[in-house]
Structure formats: C-alpha cells, structure tokens
Amino acid sequence: MGRNAGHERVSDAMTRRLPAYYRHLCLLEKAGVAYISSRSLGEEMSLTDSQIRQDLSSFGGFGRQGRGYEVRALRESIGAILGLNRGHRMIIVGAGRLGSAIASFSGFPSVGFSIMALFDADERLVGTEFSGVPVLPASQLTTFLNENAVQIAVIAVPAKVAQQAVDLVCAGGVRGILNFAETDLRVPEGVLLQNVHLSDSLMALSFRMHELEILRGEKSDWT
Q1: Is 118:92 a contact under the CB 8 Å cutoff?
Q2: What is the pTM of this model?
Q3: DSSP per residue over the chain, as a string?
Q4: pLDDT averages per 10-residue partition of the chain, 223 residues
C-alpha cells in the first residue's frame, strides 16, 4: 500500500465506502470469485468503475492488467486499511433492548470486534448474559476500564445520562464512541464519535421519499 498516512485525510464519503467494499468482497470470496474488474465491482455496488479505481488508488496499486483485482488479496488489504486485523475490544453501556440486541449480533467477531461486557444500573439485568457477554454493574465501569484496555464503547443508554456515560468511558481511555442515544454528545480531543440516530435516518428517508414524489410530479411543492 502506497498511501502516506497522516498527510491527507480520507474523505467521509470514502470512509463510508470502504466497509461496503469489504462486505462485497467477502461475499464474492464466499461465492468463489477469484478476480473481479473495477467495472463488475462497480456494478455490484452501484458505483462507476472510475470511482472504484480512484478510491483504491488512494491506498496503492491493487489491480493486475487484464485480470482486474484479486478478490481475496483486495479484501485482506481493505481489512488492514480498516484496522480489522488489529482487533478491537468493545464494551456496551446500557443493557436494555438496544444494548442487548447489539451484544447479540453475531457478525462482530468475524470482522475483529470483541465485546467484553455490558454495563447497566438496573439490578435486574446485572448478572445476566447476552450471547455469552456478561452484564456488569454500572458502578464497576471505571474500575473495569482501568483494568482492561478497551478501544471502543457503544452508548445505548437514555439521552439524559448519555453524556455522563461518555465522560466516564473517555476518562477510562476509550478512543472511539458509537453513540445510539438520541442526543448530541461532547468528546475530548483525540476521541472519535460516530452517531447512529435512528430517527434522523428515518427522517432523511422520509425527505427523499417526499422529494421523489415532487420530481415525479405527484406533488407540486413541498407542502
């Protein structure tokens, strides 16, 4: 890989495409596809072949003249670019319906994410497990982080206590936050925050549906 890390920041748009590349390449590899052209990969992902080549050239040369990209090698390279080969330890703050559902997702280990524990203040949940992941008392969060190297924290608590949870995990050395709480959070410099606001996604979908009705002439204006 020929990219000079630290000199050019990868765009947010490309950052969103990289996991999609990895996912599609995993499917192609499972299907027994050995090589794929930029055009065929673009058709798989609804992207142009020039966009594929531009994205991948940002990290070095991967393709072979006349053969395209070797699926397995490209999947491994993109996995390394995404940091999946290093592995990431995670915790989930909040063991309610959302937190327990995230803990039960079976796809995390295969891409290098290991959930170590959930934390909750509800005594009825403490001591239970979700897919083998224990629920520990929220009061033990700071101690746990002091004793274990955790890179990522998933915030799945009510909005009113989300900032308090984020402050605790940041103080404990966590450097990546995946936030499901319906509120905007503050993190210190050096900590990365990724928001997953389900209602925002639904409202954006609603807007696009409304926009499409206008473009098709089914509605004359935005009201």
Answers
A1: yes
A2: 0.83
A3: ----TTTSPPPHHHHHHHHHHHHHHHHHHHTT--EE-HHHHHHHHT--HHHHHHHHHTT----BTTTBEEHHHHHHHHHHHTTTTT-EEEEEE--SHHHHHHHT-TTTGGGTEEEEEEEES-TTTTT-EETTEEEEEGGGHHHHHHHS---EEEE-S-HHHHHHHHHHHHHTT--EEEE-SSS-----TT-EEEE--HHHHHHHHHHHHHHHHHHTTS-SS--
A4: 54 88 94 93 90 86 75 93 90 96 92 95 96 96 97 97 97 97 94 92 91 88 81
